[in-house]
Amino acid sequence: MLGSLDLNDVFIVPFLKEPTLSTGIAAGAGGIVVLGALAVALLLTVKGWWKPLWSEWLTSLDHKKIGVMYVVLAAIMLIRGVLEAVVMRAQQVSPAPGFLSVEHHAELFSTHGTIMIFFVAMPFLTGVINVVMPLQIGARDMEFPFMNAVSLWLSVGGAALVMASLVVGHFETGGWTAYPPYTGIKLSPNEGVDYWIWSLALTSVGTTLSGINFAVTIYKQRAPGMDLMKMPIFAWTTLCTAILMIFAMMPLTVASFMLALDRHAGFHFFTASNGGNMMNFANMFWLFGHPEVYILILPAFGVFSHVIPTFSGKKLYGYTSLVWATIAIAVLSFTVWVHHFFTMGQTANLNAIFGIATMTIGVPTGVKVFNWLLTMWRGKLRFSTAMLFSAGFMFTFVIGGITGVMLANPTIDFATHNSLFLVAHFHNMLIPGLLFGMFAAVNYWFPLAFGFRLDETWGRRSFWFWMIGFYLAFMPLYAIGLMGAPRRMAFFTDPAYFPWLVVAMIGALCVLAGLTSQVIQIWVSVKNRESLMVPAGDPWDGRGLEWSLGCPVPEYDFTTVPHITSREPWVDAKAAGKRVMDPTEFVDIHLPKPTGMPILVAGVATVGAFALIFEMWLIAAVCFVAMWVLVLIRSYDTDWEETITAEELREGYEAHKRLVETTPKVSLDDEFTSKNRGLILEEAV
């Protein structure tokens, strides 16, 4: 029944058998997971929070709450990812061979990459999209609310497996890309690669479902009058991201299943000695992997296209060109995957074709940067935390883009591909291109979900720590990468690298300080939430339709679905002296009831995946059948809606109208003070 699972897989046993600093750190990490889970359970029990947590959050099908839970998942995994990065930096700056075993270090950089891509970046952007996109297009929810919740809990299940690898067994040591033959059964016979396969299988299926949901919601749920060229830019980047999710996640899912069949069913898709071809894995992985880069970055581009106009006090420059640039990036992202393995033996002609395609994709990206700069030009700039992260992104992302164009040249790439230069470039794209964008989004749109602003003082401190930390942590890697320092190394012996590694270590500590500042920012904001409340909504003199609503946004979003006649209907309404959007017709609406079925489906799938990891075939088979039985039961559920009457909606509209009419008007000069209760105006009245 227990398959390959035995006592030696428990996190504390290796330390008891061989007490070293490396095994002690591993045991400590597992202990933190176990004790942390117990502490959370105890806190919820003592406070009596289990019932409201279950009824109001965990079982909710409200897109905003689902989005918030995605972001919470990303935040938890971000803490682990950053801590692992600090440990790796400490290992490399220590005298050789360092304090970690080679295998432990390899496990760390494998989990770090896997976590940051699949369990920080993906849930972060999916959560922000969930909260914001339906509000921007005038929708009341996602097209498929139940599927939306299943997507969330599948992602949580995948993350849970990665966390479980700290407690039971080990994660794989072949990097986040898990290239065979190293990840084949002969060279990696333990459970590590299977942890990678099945955690990614859960989250990739969930992400594919999210992509379908986002695309169909945008196609079918837009408010009357909102044609595609009236959609906000964030909705456009979401649409292109959704299409990439639908088509790009499948190669990863297929490749991981094929690797599982190679490992456990005697197949030979990737074993060259038996007629397979390991390059097929590289092609399928990066056929997912490069569109994935733009799955991560496009939503952040959409965030900047709202933050920058808002805090510049200007209309977004070049809307049409931004739309076409977004579409061009989405299309071209499928044409460049081979540049991820220029060193693996393709012909010079093939490398040249993909090098040219890679350089070409920089053109629409450049269009976006110039449009943002021209939006800021002669604007009335206000450097909120969100605006600081946006400005920091532009400056830093351009550096990463320049190094990307360099690496698009196959001859340069051949010399630097397996060096720390590539590591620096990769982080130079994703930290400002994804994390800075999501940090800006949280600081900008936080009031929509919770009704109060985040503390600006700690937000700005977090920005400066992140910005300084990024440059100190990764610019030295460009230098020593060009000096020949290879990536994936547990330690270095060349003394020329040491000063640069010390600077990188200081940078990692600054990044950790930035993350700590964000935790403090949340704590301080919750503590002082009464002074940060913005119940009237629109605390930034915003331009999007989402700011026409009160904060926090009610479960049904809009009391009446607005009729759209321009790209910025809320700006037009404010220009006409209105403080609320004109109502259309009040009608009864139907919203899905809370249900625990998504958690049950994903929970059974997660248990089944864990069983597959440790070869518990009977348990895995039972879970597979049970998962589909639960889906079938849900299919026959006819009592899944609740009605909100037209009268309730009318009362909600009147209450919001009375609130905004009695809220004192304040100027932008008081934007970051306790005077801001919402409905900020450019000029004092």
UniProtKB/TrEMBL annotation:
<keyword id="KW-1133">Transmembrane helix</keyword>
<keyword id="KW-0249">Electron transport</keyword>
<keyword id="KW-0813">Transport</keyword>
<dbReference type="InterPro" id="IPR036927">
    <property type="entry name" value="Cyt_c_oxase-like_su1_sf"/>
</dbReference>
<dbReference type="InterPro" id="IPR023615">
    <property type="entry name" value="Cyt_c_Oxase_su1_BS"/>
</dbReference>
<keyword id="KW-0472">Membrane</keyword>
<feature type="transmembrane region" description="Helical">
    <location>
        <begin position="429"/>
        <end position="451"/>
    </location>
</feature>
<feature type="transmembrane region" description="Helical">
    <location>
        <begin position="152"/>
        <end position="171"/>
    </location>
</feature>
<feature type="transmembrane region" description="Helical">
    <location>
        <begin position="350"/>
        <end position="374"/>
    </location>
</feature>
<feature type="transmembrane region" description="Helical">
    <location>
        <begin position="20"/>
        <end position="46"/>
    </location>
</feature>
<keyword id="KW-0679">Respiratory chain</keyword>
<feature type="transmembrane region" description="Helical">
    <location>
        <begin position="281"/>
        <end position="304"/>
    </location>
</feature>
<feature type="domain" description="Cytochrome oxidase subunit I profile">
    <location>
        <begin position="48"/>
        <end position="565"/>
    </location>
</feature>
<keyword id="KW-0812">Transmembrane</keyword>
<feature type="transmembrane region" description="Helical">
    <location>
        <begin position="108"/>
        <end position="132"/>
    </location>
</feature>
<keyword id="KW-1003">Cell membrane</keyword>
<feature type="transmembrane region" description="Helical">
    <location>
        <begin position="67"/>
        <end position="88"/>
    </location>
</feature>
<feature type="transmembrane region" description="Helical">
    <location>
        <begin position="463"/>
        <end position="485"/>
    </location>
</feature>
<feature type="transmembrane region" description="Helical">
    <location>
        <begin position="231"/>
        <end position="261"/>
    </location>
</feature>
<feature type="transmembrane region" description="Helical">
    <location>
        <begin position="497"/>
        <end position="524"/>
    </location>
</feature>
<protein>
    <submittedName>
        <fullName>Cytochrome o ubiquinol oxidase subunit I</fullName>
    </submittedName>
</protein>
<keyword id="KW-0479">Metal-binding</keyword>
<dbReference type="InterPro" id="IPR000883">
    <property type="entry name" value="Cyt_C_Oxase_1"/>
</dbReference>
<keyword id="KW-0186">Copper</keyword>
<dbReference type="InterPro" id="IPR023616">
    <property type="entry name" value="Cyt_c_oxase-like_su1_dom"/>
</dbReference>
<dbReference type="Pfam" id="PF00115">
    <property type="entry name" value="COX1"/>
</dbReference>
<comment type="similarity">
    <text>Belongs to the heme-copper respiratory oxidase family.</text>
</comment>
<feature type="transmembrane region" description="Helical">
    <location>
        <begin position="386"/>
        <end position="409"/>
    </location>
</feature>
<feature type="transmembrane region" description="Helical">
    <location>
        <begin position="316"/>
        <end position="338"/>
    </location>
</feature>
<keyword id="KW-0408">Iron</keyword>
<feature type="transmembrane region" description="Helical">
    <location>
        <begin position="195"/>
        <end position="219"/>
    </location>
</feature>
<keyword id="KW-0349">Heme</keyword>
<feature type="transmembrane region" description="Helical">
    <location>
        <begin position="599"/>
        <end position="631"/>
    </location>
</feature>
